[in-house]
Amino acid sequence: MSEPEVASTPLITNDAVVLGVLIVILTFVFRTSASKQPFWQKFYTYVPSVLLCYFIPALLNSFNVVSGETSQLYAMSSRYLLPASLVLFTLGLDLKAIMRLGVKAVIMFFAGTIGVILGGPLSMLIVSVFSPETVGGVGPDAVWRGLATIAGSWIGGGANQTAMLEVFGASTSLFSAVLAVDIIVANVWLGVLLYGSAKSEKIDRLFKADASSVWAVEKKVEEYMASIAKVPSTADTMTILGIAFGLTGFAHLCSDGITPYLAENFPQLDKFSLTSSFFWIVVIATFGGLLLSFTRLRELEGAGSSRIATVFLYVLIASIGMQMDITTVVSNPGLFIVGIIWIIIHILVMLLVAKLIKAPFFFVAVGSQANIGGAASAPVVASAFSPSLAPVGVLLAVLGYFVGTYGAWLCGIIMQTVAQ
To answer: What's the start-to-end Cα distance of the chain, in Å?
Structure first.
């Protein structure tokens, strides 16, 4: 009777030790990905660093070194670090600066968002014609729930993806499968965009686009970032943390009042996830960060608010990976067809809008990656055109963090309707 218990007990059961292990893993990934050594540069050309942040903890879980099922780290990071990261990401949102990027940049960003929102349900409909079981499932294993997490990732990023995982309640095994689709499909598209950046002049001629606005944006962004950059003091860092966790606490307080009220008086809202406490935590935290972005507190971006948010986010990513069983990744290869069709729809919408408004390829590429890749890769694509343009990717990606929560939720609700 004791043997099964021993077999199921992970090697490391103390969450303090597990957290230390996860932080060491993240440190290793970030240090090697930033290394100038040829081996690591070549390695990360083919292996995305974010994949390792998921995959290494997943290996530890799969080989029973740690247990994502019994650990409380995911609950802690999703309830506290995720809302805090959303607050800080949206805190740096400068809507005026984004508008100065030009109307076409904003149009292309939202074209990408619409492409993702429409692409999810349409790809489900298309695949259901020849393989209905691929997009079927019931309860936590209903495929639409897992695909909703891709919508969160492809509109905002990892924080929004986790928010959708909590709101729609996809099973761990399903999330493991769709996560592979998310990472692989998104990174193939990233490679295409990086290749296209070297051919941007030819593409602009094809679309009859005037790219002179891009260089005007370059100068304005350089001036803006220089105006807020500073060496952070302890007071700055404590202010950043106070805002992040203060608003997170306020979001929890509001959610504790809103959720039971809606559940008791409007139970029909449950099918829209509006009785989910986590939904209200995320929405209120994001909206709070947006409101503060209209104040001088936005300048805390220059003191590293988004950098701290990124640390929170990657702890969250590692704790998600720790719940994954790598053997489930290939459990539904048909999901890759859904992902490929989905990204093609996104691309077609982007190209159609770009053709209509004669947008430079720079806005197409960065607008797409601000959705699909978020803050992790949008600056990479922008800097492929010019290193000084990297902040453009950051600004649009921050907009994605705000839009992602609502856009992904809408996409998930539409996919739920399609699945019924």
So the answer is: 44
Cβ(320)–Cβ(161) under 8 Å?
no
Q: Cα separation of 120 and 154, whole Å? A: 10
What count of residues does the chain have? 420
Rounded CA-CA distance 240/257 in Å is 26
Residues 244-283: tens digit of each pLDDT:
999 999 999 999 999 999 988 988 776 666 777 887 888 8
Question: What is the amino acid identity at position 168?
Answer: F
3-state secondary structure of 369: helix
The b-or-e profile of 23-37 (16+ CB within 10 A means b, else e) is eebbeebbebbeeee
Give Cβ neighbours of residue 354 (< 8 Å, ≥ 6 apart): 108, 111, 207, 209, 361, 363, 364
Q: Which amino acid is at 248?
A: T
pLDDT digits (tens, 9 = 90+) for 43-60: 987 777 877 888 899 889
Residue tagged 């691929």 (tokens): 134
Kindly report, residue by residue over 109-168, the tens digit of the pLDDT. Answer: 999 999 999 999 999 999 999 888 888 888 888 999 999 999 998 997 777 888 888 888
H-helix segments, 131-273 = 143-155, 158-168, 172-197, 200-206, 212-228, 234-265
Whether the Cβ atoms of residue 113 and residue 402 lie closer than 8 Å to each other: no
**pTM over the 0.85 mark:** no
CB 173 within 8 A of CB 143: no
Instruction: Report the C-alpha gap between 19 and 228 in whole angstroms.
Output: 33
Q: Is the dihedral of CA 122, 125, 130, 134 positive or negative?
A: positive
Place of tokens 């076409």: 104
Which tokens belong to 309?
Answer: 């948010």
Based on C-alpha coordinates, what's the Rg of the chain? 21
Q: Where are the alpha helices (DSSP H) in 38-171?
A: 38-46, 49-62, 73-76, 82-91, 95-100, 103-130, 143-155, 158-168
Question: Phi/psi of residue 229, each to 5°?
Answer: -65, 140
Closest CA to 244 of 278, 277, 288, 291: 288
* Type of residue numbered 172: T
**Other CB atoms closer than 10 Å to residue 316's CB: what's the count?**
25
Residue with tokens 């660093």: 49
Instruction: With beta carbons less than 8 A apart as the criterion, state whether 154 and 308 touch.
Output: no
CA-closest candidate to residue 284, choices 163, 411, 394, 374: 163
